[in-house]
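can u pls check wat happens w/ adenosine-5'-triphosphate
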Amino acid sequence: MNFAESFRIALRALGANKARSVLTMLGVVIGVAAVILLVGIGTGVQNEITGQIEGLGSNLLFVVPGQFEGGMSANAAPPSRRFTLDDADLLARRVPGVDVVVPVIQSGSIVKRGNRSVRVVVAAANESGGEVFSGTLAGGRSYRKSEVQAGARVVVIGSNVRDTLFPGQDPVGKLVTLEGQRFTVVGYYESLGGGLGGDQDSQVYIPITTAQRIFNLNYINTIVVKASDPSRIEVVKADIRRVLIPRYGEEFTVFTQEQTLGLLSDLLNTLTYMLAGIAGISLLVGGIGIMNIMLVSVSERTREIGIRKAVGARTYDILSQFVIEAVGLSVLGGIIGIIIGWGGAALMSKLTPVPTNVTPWAVAVAFFFAAGVGVFFGVYPAWKASQLDPIVALRYE
Amino acid sequence: MAEGGAETSSRVVLETRDVSKQYRLEGVEVNALQAVSIAIRAGEMVSIMGPSGSGKSTLMHIIGLLDQPTSGKVILEGDDISSLSPNELAEQRNKHIGFVFQSFNLLSRTSAQANVELPLVYAGVSGAERVRRAKEALEHVGLGNRLGHFSSQLSGGQQQRVAIARALVNDPSIVLADEPTGNLDSRSGIEVMAMLQELNAQGITVVIVTHDDRIARHAQRVIRVFDGRVKAEEIVRDRVLAAQELAALSAEEVTG
Ligand SMILES: Nc1ncnc2c1ncn2[C@@H]1O[C@H](COP(=O)(O)OP(=O)(O)OP(=O)(O)O)[C@@H](O)[C@H]1O
Ligand SMILES: [Mg+2]
């Protein structure tokens, strides 16, 4: 007897017990759908975040005060000394192979216009800020060097700020209020889409000198350095350390893009694997369900097995019939699970801010895992069936 | 013995030599068969007869290659089958033996056609030829109009005829029937016996296992077993012809 024949017999048996087949399959369907959906969410979030960071450019270095070792988790104590604009100037003068050095201040605030207001993150930098912040101007311009030097009250706004304060209008040249001061809007950004790594559409950009004045700060948060040549980033990093150590000792840290990414993707990978593991357990439970039903089915069909053997079925024929039944259940369940998981992931990224990304890799793994579950949990009952003595099976009532 | 009988050749299809079968039940040995030596010739119709528990079914299972003797030999078509593996035995059953059981043993929720195709499936016959041969076998037993019926939609007599068609479909050397009329009313029983006699008349070797003397006398020869031993073998003189019984029965129905 050939494989196609075993296949036909198995399908007929599954069809003869539809309700049971469907319920058994459900375990696998839910398991596979869960794997696909959860891994899809994990991958989606990971891609989104790394994408946002990569969007900044791979040749960026971030200099922050304080010592960070190994992980991203800042040690709780506030850094003893913070950077000033002087430090940024020093780096710009003394570190070779650098395109721009951008001092950055970030702070939460509220922007008002008339009776409308919107909560924003103020990102302040010098005239080169545009080179290190992602985003494209939709209209107007960035602030100029002269405006940075003068501490001018000019602002470039994110798309969300624009939509809230200037619905359907051109904001360029209009006035807004920030920290009690009047600012002139000189430009606005295109929407970047709501991201998980901070909503960039709700940011406003002002000159750093202006920020220091209105927030009454004499320090800056971060210095972002853009190296001319991404391959020489480690050299630039060493040079930055050489310049800053006389001033700050070891009380500062230089992160490269790669490090930041590495740390984050390690974290996100762990998260994805955890989700996959949890979903995998439900798939395993589905497999045990298949085994249970197959065992019941074998003892229920003892007589059938006896009849088949009496008329000439060999061990292999019975074995393949029952294995195919189990694998058929799990593969069909797997396919339905993939459809549901995939559909669920697509719906999720459409209806919620959670990004999802179902990779062919995840689909393939889930599918073959499901089929494997069918083989693994189907073989034992099938083997039991194939070993039945035809006499015992025929006498069985 | 039927040697030289008009309808039977002298070729031995199946033979047992000193076959014994012991079962061990909770330490106690049961001798189901003891030194049984019988021979079935091509074209014969033989009954194996004995009271309940005498070992008839055990013997039938052994000559049907469903079971192995504890000692002794079984020779099928000249070959000793003692050393065959379970898979080889399955192939031999498929090729040479057709079974008819007391309880029909058809697959439930399966059409008559598919039931009859079953031995062909395991013989590797597929497609149109399989369908044709199964259909022919069913037509042969008068069920050409019931191909698609499930077992549950057939009467007991019809189910047994499906089982006979299944036993025939692979052109076996021998058809073994264990109490084929045991679960049937008398009329269906007679019909089934008529069928078996007709098949025998067409040259098929038939062995009937029964405890009923009247059923046994449908054969040309009776092997009497008692307590696991062959007690007597005799030629049937006043053979019962089921076709005549059937005709008589019909006549009775018409007049009565
Ligand atoms: N699997 C078994 N285990 C133990 N003893 C068995 C087994 N099968 C049969 N026997 C015993 O072997 C003996 C013969 O049984 P068998 O079924 O061959 O009798 P039988 O002649 O067919 O009887 P019946 O007319 O009632 O069908 C009986 O004593 C029975 O109890
Ligand atoms: Mg019996």
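The longest helix of chain B spans residues 186-201.
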